[in-house]
Protein backbone atom coordinates (compact mmCIF):
# COMPACT_ATOMS: atom_id res chain seq x y z
CA UNK A 1 0.00 0.00 0.00
CA UNK A 2 1.42 3.39 -0.99
CA UNK A 3 1.63 6.25 1.47
CA UNK A 4 0.84 9.62 -0.11
CA UNK A 5 2.41 12.86 1.01
CA UNK A 6 0.07 15.88 1.35
CA UNK A 7 1.34 19.40 0.80
CA UNK A 8 0.28 22.18 3.19
CA UNK A 9 -2.35 24.53 1.74
CA UNK A 10 0.13 27.41 1.63
CA UNK A 11 2.54 25.35 -0.40
CA UNK A 12 -0.22 24.37 -2.83
CA UNK A 13 -1.21 28.02 -3.25
CA UNK A 14 2.43 28.97 -3.85
CA UNK A 15 2.86 26.26 -6.44
CA UNK A 16 -0.31 27.26 -8.28
CA UNK A 17 0.73 30.92 -8.26
CA UNK A 18 4.16 30.05 -9.54
CA UNK A 19 2.72 27.92 -12.34
CA UNK A 20 0.27 30.67 -13.29
CA UNK A 21 3.08 33.21 -13.45
CA UNK A 22 5.16 30.93 -15.67
CA UNK A 23 2.23 30.42 -18.04
CA UNK A 24 1.40 34.11 -18.10
CA UNK A 25 4.97 35.15 -18.92
CA UNK A 26 5.57 32.37 -21.42
CA UNK A 27 8.25 30.59 -19.44
CA UNK A 28 10.82 30.90 -16.70
CA UNK A 29 12.96 33.94 -16.01
CA UNK A 30 16.64 34.03 -16.95
CA UNK A 31 17.52 33.93 -13.26
CA UNK A 32 15.47 30.76 -12.80
CA UNK A 33 17.21 29.22 -15.80
CA UNK A 34 20.61 29.19 -14.07
CA UNK A 35 19.53 26.39 -11.75
CA UNK A 36 22.25 24.07 -10.52
CA UNK A 37 25.12 26.28 -11.71
CA UNK A 38 24.38 26.15 -15.47
CA UNK A 39 22.99 28.79 -17.80
CA UNK A 40 20.07 27.18 -19.63
CA UNK A 41 19.45 30.34 -21.70
CA UNK A 42 22.64 29.80 -23.77
CA UNK A 43 22.47 26.38 -25.44
CA UNK A 44 25.08 25.38 -27.98
CA UNK A 45 24.37 22.71 -30.57
CA UNK A 46 27.22 20.21 -30.76
CA UNK A 47 25.52 17.90 -33.28
CA UNK A 48 22.21 17.73 -35.12
CA UNK A 49 20.31 15.38 -37.43
CA UNK A 50 21.10 12.34 -35.31
CA UNK A 51 18.70 9.42 -34.95
CA UNK A 52 17.74 8.48 -31.38
CA UNK A 53 21.07 9.08 -29.61
CA UNK A 54 21.21 7.06 -26.39
CA UNK A 55 24.62 6.76 -24.74
CA UNK A 56 27.00 9.67 -24.18
CA UNK A 57 30.50 9.29 -22.73
CA UNK A 58 33.74 11.24 -22.89
CA UNK A 59 37.25 10.29 -23.97
CA UNK A 60 40.29 11.70 -22.16
CA UNK A 61 40.88 14.19 -24.99
CA UNK A 62 37.55 15.85 -24.17
CA UNK A 63 35.67 14.55 -27.21
CA UNK A 64 32.35 12.75 -26.74
CA UNK A 65 31.22 9.37 -27.96
CA UNK A 66 27.51 9.00 -28.73
CA UNK A 67 25.54 5.89 -29.66
CA UNK A 68 22.48 5.83 -31.91
CA UNK A 69 20.03 3.23 -30.65
CA UNK A 70 18.37 2.21 -33.91
CA UNK A 71 21.20 2.68 -36.43
CA UNK A 72 23.88 1.05 -34.21
CA UNK A 73 26.24 3.86 -35.24
CA UNK A 74 28.99 5.16 -32.95
CA UNK A 75 29.93 8.81 -33.44
CA UNK A 76 32.62 11.08 -32.03
CA UNK A 77 31.70 14.70 -31.26
CA UNK A 78 33.75 17.82 -30.62
CA UNK A 79 32.20 21.21 -29.97
CA UNK A 80 32.45 23.36 -33.08
CA UNK A 81 33.24 20.47 -35.43
CA UNK A 82 31.15 18.18 -37.60
CA UNK A 83 30.37 14.77 -36.04
CA UNK A 84 32.64 11.93 -37.08
CA UNK A 85 31.02 8.54 -37.71
CA UNK A 86 33.38 5.93 -36.30
CA UNK A 87 31.36 3.01 -37.65
CA UNK A 88 28.52 0.62 -36.91
CA UNK A 89 28.77 -1.71 -33.93
CA UNK A 90 28.34 -5.28 -35.22
CA UNK A 91 26.01 -7.68 -33.44
CA UNK A 92 23.37 -5.10 -32.49
CA UNK A 93 19.76 -6.10 -33.20
CA UNK A 94 17.57 -3.00 -32.68
CA UNK A 95 13.88 -3.34 -31.88
CA UNK A 96 11.44 -1.57 -29.59
CA UNK A 97 13.48 -0.02 -26.78
CA UNK A 98 16.48 -2.22 -27.55
CA UNK A 99 19.49 -1.48 -29.73
CA UNK A 100 22.82 0.25 -29.15
CA UNK A 101 22.31 1.76 -25.70
CA UNK A 102 24.74 2.88 -23.00
CA UNK A 103 28.43 3.73 -23.39
CA UNK A 104 31.26 3.96 -20.88
CA UNK A 105 34.96 4.74 -21.24
CA UNK A 106 37.51 2.82 -19.23
CA UNK A 107 38.87 4.87 -16.30
CA UNK A 108 42.31 3.64 -17.42
CA UNK A 109 41.68 4.42 -21.09
CA UNK A 110 45.14 5.96 -21.54
CA UNK A 111 46.62 2.53 -20.85
CA UNK A 112 44.04 0.06 -22.21
CA UNK A 113 41.94 2.03 -24.80
CA UNK A 114 38.73 0.16 -23.87
CA UNK A 115 35.27 1.53 -24.69
CA UNK A 116 32.25 -0.31 -23.25
CA UNK A 117 28.77 -0.64 -24.78
CA UNK A 118 25.49 -2.15 -23.60
CA UNK A 119 23.45 -3.42 -26.53
CA UNK A 120 20.64 -5.72 -27.60
CA UNK A 121 21.91 -8.77 -29.51
CA UNK A 122 20.07 -11.56 -31.28
CA UNK A 123 19.17 -13.46 -28.11
CA UNK A 124 20.05 -11.23 -25.15
CA UNK A 125 21.19 -7.88 -23.86
CA UNK A 126 24.92 -7.77 -23.24
CA UNK A 127 27.88 -5.60 -22.33
CA UNK A 128 30.96 -5.69 -24.54
CA UNK A 129 34.18 -3.77 -24.81
CA UNK A 130 36.25 -2.86 -27.86
CA UNK A 131 38.83 -0.39 -29.11
CA UNK A 132 37.87 2.45 -31.41
CA UNK A 133 40.24 1.27 -34.13
CA UNK A 134 38.66 -2.22 -34.11
CA UNK A 135 34.91 -1.99 -33.49
CA UNK A 136 34.28 -5.54 -34.68
CA UNK A 137 36.80 -7.09 -32.31
CA UNK A 138 34.69 -7.30 -29.16
CA UNK A 139 35.25 -8.85 -25.78
CA UNK A 140 32.02 -9.90 -24.08
CA UNK A 141 32.04 -8.52 -20.55
CA UNK A 142 28.58 -9.85 -19.60
CA UNK A 143 25.90 -11.66 -21.59
CA UNK A 144 22.61 -13.43 -20.84
CA UNK A 145 20.56 -10.40 -19.77
CA UNK A 146 16.96 -10.99 -20.83
CA UNK A 147 15.85 -8.76 -23.73
CA UNK A 148 12.40 -7.52 -24.69
CA UNK A 149 10.77 -4.77 -26.72
CA UNK A 150 10.41 -2.83 -23.44
CA UNK A 151 12.37 -2.36 -20.20
CA UNK A 152 15.85 -3.15 -21.48
CA UNK A 153 17.58 -0.71 -19.12
CA UNK A 154 20.93 -0.02 -20.73
CA UNK A 155 22.86 2.61 -18.77
CA UNK A 156 26.44 1.70 -17.83
CA UNK A 157 28.97 3.80 -15.93
CA UNK A 158 32.19 3.39 -13.98
CA UNK A 159 31.90 4.33 -10.34
CA UNK A 160 34.56 6.13 -8.29
CA UNK A 161 35.63 2.67 -7.05
CA UNK A 162 36.68 1.73 -10.59
CA UNK A 163 33.91 -0.87 -10.90
CA UNK A 164 31.45 -1.04 -13.81
CA UNK A 165 27.77 -0.54 -12.91
CA UNK A 166 24.78 -1.37 -15.14
CA UNK A 167 21.08 -0.55 -14.91
CA UNK A 168 19.17 -3.59 -16.19
CA UNK A 169 15.40 -3.46 -16.79
CA UNK A 170 12.98 -6.21 -15.86
CA UNK A 171 12.45 -7.01 -19.60
CA UNK A 172 8.68 -6.72 -19.16
CA UNK A 173 8.58 -9.55 -16.61
CA UNK A 174 7.85 -7.95 -13.24
CA UNK A 175 8.87 -11.10 -11.33
CA UNK A 176 12.47 -10.65 -12.49
CA UNK A 177 12.96 -7.67 -10.18
CA UNK A 178 12.67 -9.81 -7.00
CA UNK A 179 14.14 -13.01 -8.45
CA UNK A 180 17.74 -13.34 -7.27
CA UNK A 181 18.38 -15.93 -9.98
CA UNK A 182 17.80 -13.23 -12.61
CA UNK A 183 20.10 -10.30 -13.38
CA UNK A 184 17.13 -8.32 -14.72
CA UNK A 185 15.36 -5.68 -12.67
CA UNK A 186 18.64 -4.95 -10.92
CA UNK A 187 21.62 -2.63 -10.71
CA UNK A 188 24.73 -4.73 -11.30
CA UNK A 189 28.29 -4.09 -10.15
CA UNK A 190 31.21 -5.88 -11.79
CA UNK A 191 34.93 -5.61 -12.44
CA UNK A 192 36.01 -4.00 -15.73
CA UNK A 193 36.43 -7.54 -17.13
CA UNK A 194 32.95 -8.59 -15.93
CA UNK A 195 33.93 -10.50 -12.81
CA UNK A 196 32.30 -10.40 -9.38
CA UNK A 197 34.16 -7.87 -7.21
CA UNK A 198 34.76 -8.10 -3.49
CA UNK A 199 32.15 -6.32 -1.42
CA UNK A 200 29.10 -7.16 -3.53
CA UNK A 201 26.24 -7.83 -1.09
CA UNK A 202 25.05 -11.20 -2.41
CA UNK A 203 28.25 -12.71 -3.76
CA UNK A 204 26.94 -12.15 -7.32
CA UNK A 205 26.98 -9.18 -9.67
CA UNK A 206 23.68 -7.96 -8.14
CA UNK A 207 24.20 -4.72 -6.25
CA UNK A 208 20.55 -3.72 -5.68
CA UNK A 209 17.19 -5.19 -6.67
CA UNK A 210 13.50 -4.40 -6.99
CA UNK A 211 13.95 -2.14 -10.01
CA UNK A 212 11.59 -1.76 -12.96
CA UNK A 213 13.77 0.05 -15.50
CA UNK A 214 16.85 1.99 -14.38
CA UNK A 215 18.34 4.25 -17.05
CA UNK A 216 20.31 6.83 -15.06
CA UNK A 217 23.33 6.34 -12.78
CA UNK A 218 25.37 9.10 -11.11
CA UNK A 219 27.62 9.53 -8.06
CA UNK A 220 27.91 12.56 -5.80
CA UNK A 221 31.08 14.05 -4.35
CA UNK A 222 30.88 11.66 -1.39
CA UNK A 223 30.81 8.64 -3.71
CA UNK A 224 27.10 7.90 -3.15
CA UNK A 225 25.16 6.38 -6.04
CA UNK A 226 21.81 7.75 -7.23
CA UNK A 227 19.61 6.30 -9.98
CA UNK A 228 16.54 7.24 -12.02
CA UNK A 229 13.76 4.73 -12.46
CA UNK A 230 10.67 4.51 -14.65
CA UNK A 231 7.45 3.80 -12.79
CA UNK A 232 4.45 2.16 -14.42
CA UNK A 233 1.35 4.34 -14.29
CA UNK A 234 1.75 6.51 -11.22
CA UNK A 235 5.24 7.50 -10.04
CA UNK A 236 8.72 7.83 -11.50
CA UNK A 237 11.60 7.86 -9.03
CA UNK A 238 15.08 8.99 -8.04
CA UNK A 239 16.62 6.52 -5.60
CA UNK A 240 19.65 6.71 -3.36
CA UNK A 241 21.25 3.32 -4.02
CA UNK A 242 22.88 1.27 -1.28
CA UNK A 243 24.49 -2.14 -1.57
CA UNK A 244 21.86 -4.84 -1.06
CA UNK A 245 18.95 -2.39 -1.12
CA UNK A 246 15.54 -3.57 -2.32
CA UNK A 247 13.57 -0.82 -4.05
CA UNK A 248 10.21 -2.55 -4.04
CA UNK A 249 9.15 -3.22 -7.63
CA UNK A 250 6.66 -4.71 -8.42
CA UNK A 251 5.10 -4.48 -4.94
CA UNK A 252 5.73 -0.75 -4.64
CA UNK A 253 5.69 2.10 -7.13
CA UNK A 254 6.78 5.35 -5.50
CA UNK A 255 6.66 5.71 -1.71
CA UNK A 256 5.13 2.85 0.24
CA UNK A 257 4.92 1.75 3.87
CA UNK A 258 6.61 -1.66 3.56
CA UNK A 259 9.76 -1.53 5.74
CA UNK A 260 11.41 -4.22 3.61
CA UNK A 261 11.79 -1.70 0.75
CA UNK A 262 13.71 1.54 0.40
CA UNK A 263 11.69 4.58 -0.59
CA UNK A 264 12.75 7.03 -3.32
CA UNK A 265 14.08 10.48 -2.43
CA UNK A 266 12.08 12.08 -5.29
CA UNK A 267 8.91 11.05 -7.13
CA UNK A 268 7.18 12.57 -10.14
CA UNK A 269 4.00 11.69 -11.94
CA UNK A 270 4.62 9.67 -15.08
CA UNK A 271 3.50 12.58 -17.28
CA UNK A 272 6.13 14.84 -15.71
CA UNK A 273 9.16 12.68 -16.17
CA UNK A 274 10.01 9.26 -17.65
CA UNK A 275 13.51 9.93 -16.34
CA UNK A 276 16.36 8.46 -18.36
CA UNK A 277 19.96 9.72 -18.13
CA UNK A 278 21.35 11.30 -14.98
CA UNK A 279 24.27 13.46 -13.90
CA UNK A 280 25.44 15.18 -10.72
CA UNK A 281 27.18 18.54 -10.64
CA UNK A 282 27.44 21.38 -8.15
CA UNK A 283 25.50 19.42 -5.53
CA UNK A 284 22.53 18.92 -7.88
CA UNK A 285 21.09 15.84 -9.55
CA UNK A 286 20.07 16.29 -13.19
CA UNK A 287 17.54 13.92 -14.77
CA UNK A 288 16.73 13.92 -18.50
CA UNK A 289 12.98 13.43 -18.94
CA UNK A 290 11.47 11.77 -22.00
CA UNK A 291 7.69 12.00 -21.77
CA UNK A 292 8.05 15.05 -19.50
CA UNK A 293 10.19 16.86 -22.13
CA UNK A 294 12.25 18.70 -19.55
CA UNK A 295 15.43 18.52 -17.51
CA UNK A 296 14.80 18.04 -13.81
CA UNK A 297 17.28 19.71 -11.46
CA UNK A 298 17.22 18.33 -7.92
CA UNK A 299 19.31 19.81 -5.08
CA UNK A 300 20.91 17.07 -3.00
CA UNK A 301 21.28 17.35 0.76
CA UNK A 302 24.36 16.42 2.77
CA UNK A 303 22.47 13.42 4.18
CA UNK A 304 21.69 12.04 0.73
CA UNK A 305 18.15 13.38 0.50
CA UNK A 306 16.67 15.84 -1.94
CA UNK A 307 15.32 19.37 -1.97
CA UNK A 308 12.61 20.73 -4.25
CA UNK A 309 13.09 19.78 -7.92
CA UNK A 310 13.06 22.50 -10.58
CA UNK A 311 12.08 21.85 -14.22
CA UNK A 312 14.32 23.40 -16.88
CA UNK A 313 14.09 23.31 -20.71
CA UNK A 314 10.42 22.39 -20.50
CA UNK A 315 9.03 21.76 -24.03
CA UNK A 316 12.03 23.51 -25.59
CA UNK A 317 13.88 20.54 -27.08
CA UNK A 318 11.36 17.72 -26.79
CA UNK A 319 12.24 14.35 -25.28
CA UNK A 320 15.56 14.26 -23.41
CA UNK A 321 17.47 10.97 -23.17
CA UNK A 322 20.96 11.68 -21.81
CA UNK A 323 22.61 14.27 -19.59
CA UNK A 324 26.32 14.18 -18.78
CA UNK A 325 28.77 16.60 -17.17
CA UNK A 326 31.51 17.11 -19.75
CA UNK A 327 35.20 17.48 -18.93
CA UNK A 328 34.85 21.02 -20.34
CA UNK A 329 32.63 21.87 -17.36
CA UNK A 330 29.51 22.20 -19.55
CA UNK A 331 26.35 20.13 -19.16
CA UNK A 332 25.73 18.00 -22.28
CA UNK A 333 22.19 16.87 -23.15
CA UNK A 334 20.97 14.54 -25.94
CA UNK A 335 17.41 14.61 -27.30
CA UNK A 336 15.36 11.55 -28.30
CA UNK A 337 12.68 12.80 -30.68
CA UNK A 338 13.28 10.23 -33.44
CA UNK A 339 12.80 7.22 -31.18
CA UNK A 340 9.24 6.59 -32.40
CA UNK A 341 7.57 8.45 -29.54
CA UNK A 342 8.55 12.03 -30.18
CA UNK A 343 7.65 14.83 -32.57
CA UNK A 344 10.95 15.67 -34.26
CA UNK A 345 11.88 19.03 -35.74
CA UNK A 346 13.95 19.32 -38.91
CA UNK A 347 17.23 19.32 -36.95
CA UNK A 348 16.47 16.49 -34.53
CA UNK A 349 17.98 14.66 -32.89
CA UNK A 350 20.54 16.92 -31.25
CA UNK A 351 23.33 16.94 -28.72
CA UNK A 352 23.40 20.25 -26.87
CA UNK A 353 25.62 21.68 -24.20
CA UNK A 354 24.93 24.36 -21.60
CA UNK A 355 27.67 26.52 -20.04
CA UNK A 356 28.39 26.98 -16.36
CA UNK A 357 27.11 30.33 -15.18
CA UNK A 358 30.65 31.71 -15.01
CA UNK A 359 31.51 30.88 -18.64
CA UNK A 360 31.91 33.62 -21.24
CA UNK A 361 29.40 33.64 -24.11
CA UNK A 362 30.43 32.07 -27.40
CA UNK A 363 27.97 33.57 -29.90
CA UNK A 364 29.43 31.78 -32.92
CA UNK A 365 28.33 28.40 -31.64
CA UNK A 366 25.19 29.38 -29.77
CA UNK A 367 21.87 28.15 -30.98
CA UNK A 368 18.36 29.40 -30.26
CA UNK A 369 15.99 27.67 -27.89
CA UNK A 370 13.00 26.80 -30.09
CA UNK A 371 9.70 26.57 -28.32
CA UNK A 372 7.95 23.24 -28.69
CA UNK A 373 4.41 22.23 -28.06
CA UNK A 374 3.91 19.15 -25.92
CA UNK A 375 4.26 15.91 -27.82
CA UNK A 376 1.05 14.45 -29.11
CA UNK A 377 2.60 11.06 -29.74
CA UNK A 378 1.38 8.09 -27.71
CA UNK A 379 2.73 8.10 -24.18
CA UNK A 380 5.27 5.43 -23.33
CA UNK A 381 4.17 2.12 -21.89
CA UNK A 382 6.10 3.36 -18.85
CA UNK A 383 9.06 1.51 -20.17
CA UNK A 384 9.74 4.65 -21.81
CA UNK A 385 29.08 10.25 -18.55
CA UNK A 386 32.69 7.98 -14.66
CA UNK A 387 30.11 10.95 -14.84
CA UNK A 388 32.11 12.92 -12.51
CA UNK A 389 30.45 14.59 -9.56
CA UNK A 390 31.44 18.16 -8.85
CA UNK A 391 31.74 19.94 -5.57
CA UNK A 392 32.81 23.44 -4.78
CA UNK A 393 36.42 23.83 -3.76
CA UNK A 394 38.72 26.80 -3.26
CA UNK A 395 40.48 28.13 -6.34
CA UNK A 396 44.18 28.88 -6.05
CA UNK A 397 45.67 31.51 -8.31
CA UNK A 398 49.09 33.08 -8.35
CA UNK A 399 49.07 33.32 -12.12
CA UNK A 400 50.01 36.57 -13.86
CA UNK A 401 47.31 39.18 -13.78
CA UNK A 402 45.38 40.64 -16.67
CA UNK A 403 48.28 42.81 -17.81
CA UNK A 404 50.14 39.66 -18.86
CA UNK A 405 47.01 38.43 -20.62
CA UNK A 406 46.75 34.99 -19.01
CA UNK A 407 45.16 33.72 -15.80
CA UNK A 408 44.70 30.17 -14.51
CA UNK A 409 42.39 28.88 -11.79
CA UNK A 410 42.34 25.47 -10.13
CA UNK A 411 39.60 23.45 -8.47
CA UNK A 412 38.88 19.93 -7.23
CA UNK A 413 35.82 18.68 -9.11
CA UNK A 414 35.43 15.33 -7.36
CA UNK A 415 37.35 13.48 -4.66
CA UNK A 416 37.33 9.97 -3.23
CA UNK A 417 39.77 8.04 -1.00
CA UNK A 418 43.23 8.11 -2.59
CA UNK A 419 42.32 9.93 -5.80
CA UNK A 420 40.56 12.99 -7.17
CA UNK A 421 39.54 14.77 -10.35
CA UNK A 422 40.83 18.30 -10.81
CA UNK A 423 40.32 21.12 -13.28
CA UNK A 424 42.52 23.97 -14.47
CA UNK A 425 40.85 26.78 -16.41
CA UNK A 426 43.05 29.02 -18.56
CA UNK A 427 41.52 32.45 -19.26
CA UNK A 428 42.78 34.83 -21.94
CA UNK A 429 42.61 38.23 -20.24
CA UNK A 430 44.45 40.00 -23.06
CA UNK A 431 43.19 41.75 -26.18
CA UNK A 432 44.59 39.35 -28.79
CA UNK A 433 44.10 35.65 -29.47
CA UNK A 434 46.74 33.36 -27.99
CA UNK A 435 48.69 30.92 -30.15
CA UNK A 436 49.85 28.78 -27.22
CA UNK A 437 49.75 28.68 -23.44
CA UNK A 438 51.43 26.98 -20.50
CA UNK A 439 50.44 26.53 -16.86
CA UNK A 440 52.79 25.51 -14.04
CA UNK A 441 51.40 24.02 -10.82
CA UNK A 442 53.45 23.41 -7.70
CA UNK A 443 51.74 20.96 -5.35
CA UNK A 444 52.51 21.03 -1.66
CA UNK A 445 51.13 17.67 -0.51
CA UNK A 446 52.62 15.06 -2.83
CA UNK A 447 49.78 14.91 -5.37
CA UNK A 448 50.65 12.95 -8.53
CA UNK A 449 48.73 13.34 -11.80
CA UNK A 450 47.94 9.99 -13.45
CA UNK A 451 45.87 11.11 -16.45
CA UNK A 452 45.15 14.45 -18.12
CA UNK A 453 42.94 15.58 -21.02
CA UNK A 454 42.75 18.73 -23.15
CA UNK A 455 46.48 19.30 -22.64
CA UNK A 456 49.98 17.80 -22.52
CA UNK A 457 51.79 17.55 -19.21
CA UNK A 458 55.02 16.61 -17.48
CA UNK A 459 55.54 16.21 -13.75
CA UNK A 460 58.85 16.41 -11.93
CA UNK A 461 58.46 16.00 -8.19
CA UNK A 462 55.85 18.47 -7.04
CA UNK A 463 55.97 20.60 -10.20
CA UNK A 464 53.53 19.99 -13.05
CA UNK A 465 53.82 21.79 -16.40
CA UNK A 466 50.71 21.72 -18.63
CA UNK A 467 50.86 22.84 -22.26
CA UNK A 468 48.13 23.17 -24.86
CA UNK A 469 47.25 20.55 -27.42
CA UNK A 470 47.67 21.48 -31.10
CA UNK A 471 43.94 22.11 -31.38
CA UNK A 472 43.34 24.31 -28.30
CA UNK A 473 46.28 26.70 -28.20
CA UNK A 474 44.22 29.52 -29.70
CA UNK A 475 42.06 31.24 -27.07
CA UNK A 476 40.21 34.41 -28.13
CA UNK A 477 40.11 37.45 -25.85
CA UNK A 478 37.92 36.69 -22.80
CA UNK A 479 37.78 33.06 -23.89
CA UNK A 480 38.87 30.10 -21.81
CA UNK A 481 40.03 26.50 -22.04
CA UNK A 482 39.57 23.88 -19.34
CA UNK A 483 42.02 21.05 -18.67
CA UNK A 484 40.87 18.08 -16.61
CA UNK A 485 42.96 15.47 -14.86
CA UNK A 486 42.96 12.56 -12.45
CA UNK A 487 45.50 12.43 -9.63
CA UNK A 488 46.45 10.46 -6.55
CA UNK A 489 46.66 11.98 -3.10
CA UNK A 490 47.09 10.97 0.54
CA UNK A 491 46.86 12.83 3.82
CA UNK A 492 45.56 16.20 2.67
CA UNK A 493 44.63 17.52 -0.75
CA UNK A 494 45.30 21.23 -0.62
CA UNK A 495 45.35 23.36 -3.79
CA UNK A 496 48.74 24.02 -5.39
CA UNK A 497 50.92 26.46 -3.52
CA UNK A 498 51.78 28.19 -6.80
CA UNK A 499 50.02 28.58 -10.15
CA UNK A 500 51.64 30.46 -13.02
CA UNK A 501 50.25 31.03 -16.50
CA UNK A 502 52.16 32.16 -19.59
CA UNK A 503 51.02 32.65 -23.19
CA UNK A 504 52.17 33.63 -26.66
CA UNK A 505 52.07 36.00 -28.30
Q: What keyword list fits this structure?
A:
mainly beta; Neuraminidase; 2 domains; 2 helices
Structure report:
With 505 residues, the protein is mainly beta. The protein has 2 domains: 34-365, Neuraminidase (6 Propeller); 402-504, Immunoglobulin-like (Sandwich), CATH 2.60.40.290. It is 4% helix and 38% strand. A 4-stranded antiparallel beta sheet has the order 1-24-23-22, with no helix packed on it. A hairpin with a 5-residue loop joins strand 2 (53-58) and strand 3.
- Based on DSSP secondary structure assignment, what is the total number of beta strands? 32
Largest sheet: 4 strands, antiparallel
Low confidence ranges: 1-32, 362-371, 373-403
Would you give the CATH topology of the largest domain? Neuraminidase
Strand content: 35-45%
Q: What is the gist of this entry?
A:
By secondary structure, the protein is mostly beta strands. It has two helices and 32 strands.
Amino acid sequence: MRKRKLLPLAAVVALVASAAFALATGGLSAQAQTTGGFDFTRPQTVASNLVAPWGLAFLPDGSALVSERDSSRLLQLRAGQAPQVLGTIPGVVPGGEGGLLGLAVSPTYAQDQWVYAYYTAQSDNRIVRFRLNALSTQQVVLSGLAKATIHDGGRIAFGPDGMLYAGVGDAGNTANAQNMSSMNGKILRMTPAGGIPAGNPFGTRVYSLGHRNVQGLAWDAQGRLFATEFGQNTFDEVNAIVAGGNYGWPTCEGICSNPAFRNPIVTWTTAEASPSGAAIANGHFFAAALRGQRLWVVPLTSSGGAGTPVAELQNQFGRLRAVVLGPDGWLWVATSNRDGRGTPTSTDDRVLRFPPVSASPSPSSASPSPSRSPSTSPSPSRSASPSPSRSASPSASSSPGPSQGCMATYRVANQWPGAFQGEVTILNTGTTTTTSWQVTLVFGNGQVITQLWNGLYTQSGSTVVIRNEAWNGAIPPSGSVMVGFLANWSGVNNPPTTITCTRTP
